[in-house]
Amino acid sequence: MLSRFSDATVDRVKIQIVVVGKDRGDPLVEAADAYVERLARYYPASVTELREEPAKSSTPIERVRAVEAERIQKAVAKDAYLIALDETGKELLSTEIAERISRWALEARPQIAFVIGGPNGLDRALLASAKERWALSRLTLPHRLARLVLAEQLYRAATIIRGEPYHR
């Protein structure tokens, strides 16, 4: 069981979810936003939506990813601990996510940024620069669904850390 943190310790970690693609009005996004609001009771949390680069048949996908990577890098603080969500990343249990967040709080990391790419995925250089790569599933998920799963798991991790009954 994880130990409880004082409010001062908890507030040290700011969580940012960066998403390529704007999907206002989508029910999955609304559900994800509800979990981010719940998460914000425990940690300062925000979602940054970035414009998806149009993929034309004449534009190489690598170029589309590179342009989106530039937008991501501008949106994330320089000292942020970057976690890229990618199907080749490591799958974690909810309790392992809670342990990581606890560790980051104790290490007083100023900001944790989770990045969800658009339909074309994430740039190779951005993936290489990430401190960690997580997979929410071995399945390929639409980015709106990945956003919902991530937000729910971060909220779940916060309740695990606090010893609340949400995670049974």
Pick out its properties:
alpha/beta, 168 residues, 19% strand, five-stranded parallel sheet, globular, Alpha/beta knot, disordered N terminus, 5 strands, single chain
Explain what you see.
- The chain has one domain (7-161): 3-Layer(aba) Sandwich (Alpha/beta knot).
- A five-stranded parallel β-sheet has the order 2-1-4-3-5.
- The chain has six helices and five strands.
- α2 runs parallel beside α6 (143-161).
- Residues 1-9 have low confidence and may be disordered.
- It has 168 residues and is of the alpha/beta class.
- It has helices at 7-10, 27-39, 61-75, 94-106, 124-129, 143-161, and strands at residues 14-20, 45-50, 81-90, 111-116, 132-134.
- The chain starts with 6 loop residues before the first helix and ends in a 7-residue tail after the last helix.
CATH fourth-tier homologous superfamily: SPOUT methyltransferase, trefoil knot domain
CATH architecture: 3-Layer(aba) Sandwich
Task: Tally the helices.
Answer: 6
- Distance from N terminus to C terminus (CA atoms, Å) equals 12 Å
Whole-angstrom Rg? 16 Å
Find the CATH topology. Answer: Alpha/beta knot
Helix/strand-derived category reads: alpha/beta
Domains counted in the coordinates: how many?
1
Uncertain ranges: 1-9
The gross shape turns out to be globular
Average pLDDT over all residues: 91
